[in-house]
């Protein structure tokens, strides 16, 4: 027993009960409601699949959330068992406890409790219930003034399954899809599957799964590999998107109809706070994207977009880029000599920017010397990454001397100085002895600046 966190009598009683699953399952019919939550948590953490399956059938509250419980591969079978036993039809056993569970939430959320406090309303109350699907409890029972009581329960009644999905084409995904389709058929249309965080590895392989989802529920969408026309079709079914991440998108031309249609749908995404376009060639056309984005954008990722000087010049004046908290411009080579647009952008963001990444941008000493006056004005900056740029040791020292006064800046990933390479930028040519001396010098400088709270590392660390 842990001396710092001794087990309570309730903990010991639940552990004793779970040692005999048949007894635990039998006890569910008459168990006081107050014991269900601690028993559920113990059963989930202990991997008691059979107990969880029966608990879902007789859960005495309107909602059940995974919340802060750890979900990894070993727990996937537990989640499947809970879905399989989610009551969506009347129980054939008339003696069984009447099912009350209406919302099964399998998403991880450290701020979410196992069940919500009960409020005296006609409809089942839950802080995390689906808000946008036409098949949700809120929409259906709000329209029909459905009165739900244990004495006059009716079927089919709307039931919600809240999930975050990662569609990667794996066997686990395919098995999960078969389970969802089976459950939808069993429910005769009463089951609403709400997915607010959707990640798709290859869009062309996931169309079947997407067809069973109400895409209007999605708030965070990430697609890695897909044609822009297919992506546009998906976006046309979404009205409440807050985060959009697209990578390795294929299309023929920035002047073509497909790209125009994409921009047309993006224009109506008024709730967007985060946009990531990686490996999405936008050379000379960034203005067309930024102009239609909402002005309250907080996160902008534009890595591997082959941005031009013209793109930087427009971004420096764009009102859509004035409130950014996170900006990632990595892997966009800056060949030009005039860094004034980038300097202006940093000045405009000086009051909000917290995280800046400009790795692999071919930024040299001259560029850094121009950017330093703007960087030191970014008083909210907490993370700075500028690795793999051709910087000399004297300029790196200058950078540290200028950045250590920024009290909010805690984490810096810096480039290995060019003198540490036999041939820059090949990793195999790094002289480890020279690098060790660089690291030692920076460590001493941090100590002299009394910044023990600040970390400077290379990508190798």
Shape descriptor reads globular
Distance between the termini: 38 Å
Low-pLDDT runs of 5+ residues are: 146-153
Radius of gyration: 27 Å
> Mean of residue pLDDT?
88
Total of helices: 16
Classify the secondary structure makeup into a structural class. alpha/beta
Largest β sheet strand count, sense and barrel closure: 13 strands, parallel
Would you list the SSEs in sequence order as H and E?
HHHHEHEHEHEHEHEHEHEHEHEHEHEHE
Tell me how many strands there are: 13
The fraction of residues assigned to DSSP E strands is 5-15%
**Strand order within the widest beta sheet:** 1-2-3-4-5-6-7-8-9-10-11-12-13
Task: Report what the structure shows.
The chain has helices spanning 9-18, 21-27, 36-45, 49-58, 76-84, 137-144, 171-187, 207-210, 228-235, 257-266, 286-290, 309-317, 340-348, 365-375, 393-403, 432-448, and strands at 63-67, 103-108, 159-167, 191-200, 220-227, 243-250, 274-278, 299-301, 326-328, 355-357, 383-385, 411-413, 455-457. It has 461 residues and is an alpha/beta fold. A 13-stranded parallel beta sheet has the order 1-2-3-4-5-6-7-8-9-10-11-12-13. Helix 2 (21-27) runs parallel beside helix 4 and helix 13 (340-348) packs parallel to helix 14. Residues 146-153 have low confidence and may be disordered.
